UniProtKB/TrEMBL annotation:
Gene3D superfamilies: 3.30.70.120. One of its GO terms (molecular function) is enzyme regulator activity. Keywords: Nucleotide-binding, Phosphoprotein, Transcription, Transcription regulation. This is Nitrogen regulatory protein P-II. The lineage of its organism: Bacteria, Pseudomonadati, Pseudomonadota, Alphaproteobacteria, Rhodobacterales. It comes from the Bacteria. The modification O-UMP-tyrosine is found at Y71. Homotrimer.
Amino acid sequence: MRIFLQVQNARPPGVIEGKDVKLIIATIKPFKLEEVREALTNAGVRGMMVTEIKGFGSQSGHTEIYRGAEYAVNFVPKIKLEIVVPATMADQIIETITTTAKTGKIGDGKIFVLDVEQALRVRTGETNEEAL
């Protein structure tokens, strides 16, 4: 006996066809922030959130010498960017961040892309792409 299931690709409530929005979360080196911000502005990004963070990945921290004593620095300073863009712009924005933030050395960062179920501008009540 065979059973076939048909799965529908239904959108969550509040998401309008053709109005897909993406959240791009990028971690970059702190000294690259201004260069990345300028490149994103030129690429059409109208806003972003920036947070100073600490973390580690492959780099696993490093050691520093301060007043003759060696200290282990387990968490490395990074900058986290959160950018919400229309899905049609996501690939361009990812490419812009990648090329601008890249130094070719360990610790250049990571980029994550998530679907945004709904966006809302508090002041006007605009939703999704219009809210950006």
